[in-house]
Each structure stands twice: as C-alpha cells, then as structure tokens.
Amino acid sequence: MPNHITLRDFIAKLKQAGRDCTLLGVGPVSEVVVRAAFQACARHNCPPIFIASRNQVDLKRLGHGYLMGGMDQKTFVAFLKRLEQESAYRGTVFICRDHGGPWQRDAELKAKLPAAQAMAIARRSFRADIAAGFNYLHIDPTKCPHRHTQEQLVQWTVELLAYCETVRRRLGLDAIDYEVGTEDIQGGLTTAETYESFLKKLTARLTKAHLPLPTCVVGQTGTLCKLDRNVGRFDAQGTARLVKIAARYGVGFKEHNGDYLAAAICRAHPGLGITGMNVAPEFGLVETEALLALADLETKLVRAGRLREKKASHLRQLLLEKTFTGTPWKKWMTAEISKRAPAQIKADNALRLLIARVCGHYTYADPAIRSARKRLYANLGRCRCFPKPGANSADDFVLGKVRAQIEFYIRHLAMADTNAILQDG
C-alpha cells in the first residue's frame, strides 16, 4: 500500500496540471464498501480515500468500532492492505481519520466527559492512528457538550495537532495531512465571519509554533443527511465565499454530508473549488437496499414453491428487528420522528423499513445477520437466479450496486484519471 505523497502535495499537483476536481472521501461502513471503492478507483485511475470515524474504528480499550465486529486501527489498516491486494488497484491510498478528537465517540458525547478527560482519550486515539499508518487526521473538538468559545476550539486544535506532530516525529514517519473544523456539523451554512475568524486565529497560532497548516478546513455548505436523503440545501454562493477565504490562508475547503446530492450539484463542486467531499451513510444504504432486494427475490421463490420456507434466510425480518433494537438510528431521523413514542415507531412498518435501510450497515457483523446473509446467497445460487450462476453471484450483485454509486461521485466530481499526475510526474 504505497503512499509516497501527502494529500496536500497531491492537490498541489492537480492544480499545477489544471485539473479541477473534488476528492471523494469514502466512509468505510462495510467490507463491501471498501472492496467497491478499490474496484471503482482501479477502473477510474484515482486514489481511494477512506475516512474512518472513531465509531467505526478505534482502540479496543476505548470501545473499538462497529466495523467488521470491532476493528482497531492496526486491524483496519491490515484489512485495507488485504482488500487492496485482492483488487486490481495499485497506487496511493489515503487512510484518514474522520472526526478524530474529543467527544467524537457517541458514548463520550452522551457522558459529557470533562474536557481534560476527553482530550486525554483523543490523544490516545490519535497516537494509535499514527502508529498504525493513518496519513490524514481530522482534528475535531467541535462536538464539545459544554459551553465553549471559538478560542477554546482553536486551543484544543493546536494542542492536538502539536501532539500528533510530536508522535509522528518520534516514530520517524513522513509528513501527514491534517483537517480541522470551525463548528459542529449540524446543517446550515458556516458564516464567512466565523470561518475567517477561526482560520486567522488558527493559522497564526500554528505558524508561531512552527507547526504545519491543515490541508483542509471543514465548512458547512447547507447540506445535512437525515433519513435516506439530504434534507439540507446546498448554498453555492455561500460556499464559494468560504472557499475563497480558505484559499487566502493557504488551505483547502472540505465539505461533509455530501450524501444523496444530485448530479448537477456534484458537477458544480470542482468549479467552485471545493477540495474534498465526504460520503458515508449513503453507501451503507445502497448495500442494504441491495440485500433487501435479494431478500424479496427469495420470498418470491418461496411463494413460487422453488424454495422451502424453512430453508429461507428471513434476512429482511432480521434487519428490521436488529436495526431497531441495536443501532443508533435516532441520530439519522428527523426531530419530528425522534419525538414519536417508541411504541408508535415500532408499530409503523414503513418507518421500520426506513430505519432498516438507513442503519442496516451497523448490523452486518451481527452473527445472526451474517448467517442469514450467507444462507440468502446460497439459496439464490442454488435457484440459479443470476445470468451467470456461481458461488459469488449474489455478492457480485450487491458489490456492483455499491460500486456504481461510488463511481457516480467519481465521475461527477471529476476525479477520474487523477492518478495520471503521479504517473506523469
């Protein structure tokens, strides 16, 4: 898994080559999504950029993550290396920590940990990131559940970035990239005044301390993911102002909550100068929808007498049950839905299906789900449900759906063939 260039240098080379593009950060919500990303990037000759949150991947003693049943940083990097070798992709891979920092695990935020304790935990997590081989770190203290000022956000950001640089140098590692934020991402548009004030304070502090500037600074563009759609409204003019401010301070502009955006909006991103955009839950939803489609096909086989009921996987019902009882589904619902009585939600079949579609990826490591998925694939294979029968036909169907959605963003964000600048240089 070679990585001979920082993302900052990669972006600089793109600009020198006159390539306007927005780099896609892929949330590694499942093994299928990671495999699909490697395949898509191999097809389009562009670098895979994986953005792992602390809820997905973290130290076991900090609670590990939900990915693959509990991955820490070392296991995650080894996992990426294995899937890269199994793919046709050969080139630079960016392994990124998304929303690293204090209070970024749901449990830490719910407990409202004191700042000193949350910062200590963040340092342990970042140290493990760097030692494992992460090469891009998002330092984000903006979820602070206590009253705080912008000055405190700057202070915490500088402290953590300085700590990460100390660890990196101590381990003798090459330069890595950093990403920072101005405010907790809750939708709406970051104001130009807030954005510039934060950047002015931060860059002055970093320069004085002889620390590297961040590669990207997050700004809110109006987007917000809830349910199975983007409930926000992308503000092109406001975003353009934020991009220009970031450029004045020598940093790139990063957008989160890019899921479910229309093709036309995505195509506008490179021209607006948006450096990067993250997409995560949408890819999990696409995978779950593919599984549900296969489960519905299995049900048709039972009704047609081609498959005995007791041999069926019952994956659909399992997903409905497991997502409702064992996932953080409320954080993806609108406030109106979250306020409804639990019994009312439980009895609403349409809403239960929506929760399953949105949060299915949290359950993929559950033993019952894994067993049902395996049985589903076997049943469809035995019934010859695919044009090219084979042991992996159902898996290929699901993988293809996710890969197609990743390729949608690669195309519309103009990422295709961006690796050529490294091959030419």
CATH fold topology of the largest domain? TIM Barrel
Tally of DSSP helical segments: 17
Secondary structure: helix percent: 40-55%
Strand order of the largest sheet: 1-10-9-6-5-4-3-2
Structural class: alpha/beta
Number of domains: 2
The assigned CATH architecture of the largest domain is Alpha-Beta Barrel
Tell me the major beta sheet. 8 strands, parallel
Strand content: 5-15%
Shape: globular
What's the mean pLDDT score?
Answer: 94
What does this molecule look like?
With 425 residues, the chain is of the alpha/beta class. It folds into 2 domains: 7-283 and 403-424, Aldolase class I (TIM Barrel, Alpha-Beta Barrel), CATH 3.20.20.70; 284-401, no CATH class. 52% of the residues lie in helices and 9% in strands. The protein is built from 17 helices and 10 strands. Strands 1-10-9-6-5-4-3-2 form an 8-stranded parallel sheet. A two-stranded antiparallel sheet has the order 7-8. Strand 9, helix 9 and strand 10 (276-279) form a beta-alpha-beta unit. The longest helix has 23 residues, at 281-303. The protein starts with 6 loop residues before the first helix and ends with a helix. The model has no long low-confidence stretch (mean pLDDT 94).
